Amino acid sequence: MQQTMSRPQPNMQPNNQNNGPTRTQSLIITAITLFALSGLIIGFATGAVTRPTQAAKPTAMPTTNTIAKQTNPTPTQTKVQPVQLGCPSIQQADGEGVANGTSTYAFQMQVVGTTNPKSCDANTKPIQSSGITCKLWISKIPDNKIIQIPPSVLSDINAVKQPINGEVTDSLLFNSGTPQTQMCNGQGQGSWKFSVSPTAKHGTYYLVVLTDWNGQYSNWSWSNFTVKKTG
Q1: How far apart are CA 95 and CA 98, in angstroms?
Q2: Distance CA 215, CA 160 (A)
Q3: DSSP 8-state assignment for residue 142
Q4: Which is deepest, 10, 18, 162, 182, by most CB within 10 Å?
Q5: From CA 113, how far away is CA 83, in angstroms rounded?
Q6: 75-128, pLDDT tens digit by residue?
């Protein structure tokens, strides 16, 4: 008896028994893919949370150039305590002058110390200090040839500025830069420029110079001066 085998038709599906492994493999691949994607997402999220904050750049502060001010030190002057004064040392003195009001004459002196204020021979070294009052005037020669100044005048600077006993006022015309009563300079020197007034009487006089240190110590000197009516 002959057996007849029929070939399957083209539209017939293959047996489903072979679909099992293929489906399982697909599930595994899908699971792996989802796991990888979840890991990637978690990594991004973790990186965003744990990423260190970028340090802010320091802001540059504007600089100001400080100009140092240079100050000149103020010189300090040593204060010398008043000491006993000797007879002023006359450095320059014209011996005569014409009473015309125009011819100029000079007188210059130096303050000195002393070991005996009653003797000009006891003069010691020059005193180089400011604060000493100096005055120059013209006086008639007294009969006893000695100029006397009352202690009340010597102890009062304001009295020194006033006419002193024996002073012939308005006979000497002092230049504006060298007033009759002035402060000696820092070296203890006094100087005067003056002319003789046309009203001054001719004759022999004394040019008297006084030094007074704050009314505490004082002394004076004089030199002869002749007033002439004509040159």
Answers
A1: 11
A2: 9
A3: P
A4: 182
A5: 7
A6: 444 557 899 999 999 999 999 999 999 999 999 999 999 999 999 999 999 999
